[in-house]
C-alpha cells in the first residue's frame, strides 16, 4: 500500500509535536508543512515549508493535520474539504456551534474523513477505564468528576478555558461512559483581565441518569489532570498526567473497629493500581486517523459529529453561566 501524503498547517506549540509524530509514522509521508509566521521551532526538519493551506494543498497531500488557532479552524477546514483533502483538526472542532456545523456538512458532502484531536481519548488510563467499564467492572455509572487545572497559557487568546481545556473533559466523559449530555449548569470567572473566562465549575446530567462535574482553570501553579468515575461496584481514578488507573473496590467485609469505620466507612474493599502498556497518546491518535483513511476504521477516531456535540455542550455551559441557570443541551 502506498504511503499517505500528509501535510501540517500550524507550527506552534502543538504543531511541532504533530510534526515529530507524523514524520515518523508508518505508512505516512509528511511531505510539507505550512505556517505564515514561519518555522520558529524547527518543526519542518528539512521538509518543504510553505506559508498557506492553499500552497500545502498544491503539494498533492491526501490529508492534513490542522493545528492553527481555533478561530481559523473553519476557514482552513472548508478549503481542505473543497480540495478533497481529509483532515484531523486540533480540538475543539471550531470556535462555535455554527462553524462546527458547517465543517461537518462540508466533509460529509465531500465524503471525506474528518477527525478532532481530543487527545485524552487516547490516554492509556482512560482507554483502560472505558474498556473495563464496558466489561462491567464498575456496574452502573453514578458520577464522573474531573479536575483540570494549571498555569495560564499565554499562547491561547481566541477562546476561554471552557472551549480550550474544558472540551477535553466534556469529550472524555461522554466517550468513557458512552453517554450523552442532557443538561449542564456552570459558573465562570474572569481573573486574568482578558475577555474570555479562565475558570469554570460545571455540573451536568448524562443519559442514563449519571451526574458529572468539571472543575477547570488556568490559574493554578498546580498542574492536575484527574478523572474519578464512580459506579455501583467502586470507583476508577485516572491520572492522565502519569497515565495511571487505580480501582477502589466496594468491600464486602464489615469494619468493626468503630474509630476506623467513622473515617473509612463500614465497607472498605481492595485498592488496585493496574499495570498496562502506555504508548504516547499523540502517536495513538495519529495511528487511529491513518487507519480511518486507509481501512475505513472509524471507531477509534473522534469524528467531526462527535466534535460538534462537544462544542454544543461547551456553548451550553457558557450560556448557563451567562444566564445563571441550567441549560438543556440541544
UniProtKB/TrEMBL annotation:
Coiled coil residues, start to end: none
Lineage top rank: taxon: Bacteria
Gfo/Idh/MocA-like oxidoreductase N-terminal domain residues are 5-118
Q: State any single GO MF term.
A: nucleotide binding
Task: Kindly give the Pfam families that the UniProt entry links to this protein.
Answer: GFO_IDH_MocA (PF01408), GFO_IDH_MocA_C3 (PF22725)
Q: Which residues form the GFO/IDH/MocA-like oxidoreductase domain?
A: 127-236
Gene3D superfamilies named in the record: Dihydrodipicolinate Reductase, domain 2, NAD(P)-binding Rossmann-like Domain
PANTHER family the UniProt entry points to: BILIVERDIN REDUCTASE A (PTHR43377)
Q: What is this protein called?
A: Dehydrogenase
Its source organism is Dietzia lutea
